[in-house]
Amino acid sequence: MSRPTLRFAPSPNGRLHLGHAFSALTNARIAQNLGGRLLLRIEDIDLGRTRPEFVQAIFDDLAWLGLNFDGPVRRQSGHFSEYVRARDALAVRKLLYPCFCSRGRIAAAITEREASGARVARDPDGAPLYPGTCHALPGDEVRARIDGGAPHTWRLDSAAALAEITAPLVIRRFAPDGSQDTVPADPARWGDAVIARRDVPTSYHLAVVWDDAEQGISHVVRGQDLEAATDLHVLLQHLLGLPSPAYHHHGLIRDETGDKLAKSKGSESLADLRARGVTPGAVRAMLGFA
């Protein structure tokens, strides 16, 4: 049997904080306990927010923490052609459809439905489900708009995708000691999710599923904020004929108000901690890895 393989996969759109350190250290501990490998992946499909200095900062912060990784570093921005093949494999089976709606148009449609008293279903993150505006556009109109360069995303036709499922979808979960169980997956609660964005030919969901298969990831360790997304990921794995890893979703590091740490909130970074004299040992201790 091949060795268990895990990955730590940060995005270079800001500086790493204690939440990232906790996830990286958790991955490293579990990889060691399982006698496995730990890979590093840079999830940089968001070209508008990725910065070279943030990529280097990831390497610097992880080295400062004393973490070592196996194998080459995979950068998603170098694999867009692979994601195109995966996207097209779904589109040719009519499991995806192009969506020309802007965020503003979608928001207006949702507001109109709510104003009429209609119930608006929401995904696990609390966002309204896409109302299906572009789902039934005539083929001639779709081709003309694409040929004319109209910006569009590619959405999963969830009804068509779920119709291909012949057995119950399940998520394999594992505990840090390696024990496993299974729970049902419910991808329908994500509706017609975006599978490829306007600006790049993929989304987080498609890229992470493809990358995990390409890198031979057997165990995924990530935060609880991504637990619900696993429903959609196992569906994509099934549709693309990819293996499904076992998943462990760890608790989140929160600030004094109870909110999770986030780059967008300006949470104190590891570089900030380092600048004020906090040591790697102190960081490990405060996160429970002394």
TrEMBL record:
GO terms (BP aspect): glutamyl-tRNA aminoacylation
InterPro entries: aa-tRNA-synth_I_CS, Glu/Gln-tRNA-synth, Glu/Gln-tRNA-synth_Ib_cat-dom, GluQ/Sye, Rossmann-like_a/b/a_fold
Key words of the record: Aminoacyl-tRNA synthetase, ATP-binding, Ligase, Metal-binding, Nucleotide-binding, Protein biosynthesis, Zinc
Keyword Nucleotide-binding: yes
Entry-linked PROSITE patterns: AA_TRNA_LIGASE_I
GO MF annotation: an example: glutamate-tRNA ligase activity
Matching Gene3D superfamilies: HUPs (3.40.50.620)
GO CC list: cytosol
Domain Glutamyl/glutaminyl-tRNA synthetase class Ib catalytic residue range list: 6-284
Entry's family note: Belongs to the class-I aminoacyl-tRNA synthetase family.
PANTHER family tied to this protein: GLUTAMATE--TRNA LIGASE, GLUTAMYL-Q TRNA(ASP) SYNTHETASE
Protein name, entry field: Glutamyl-Q tRNA(Asp) synthetase
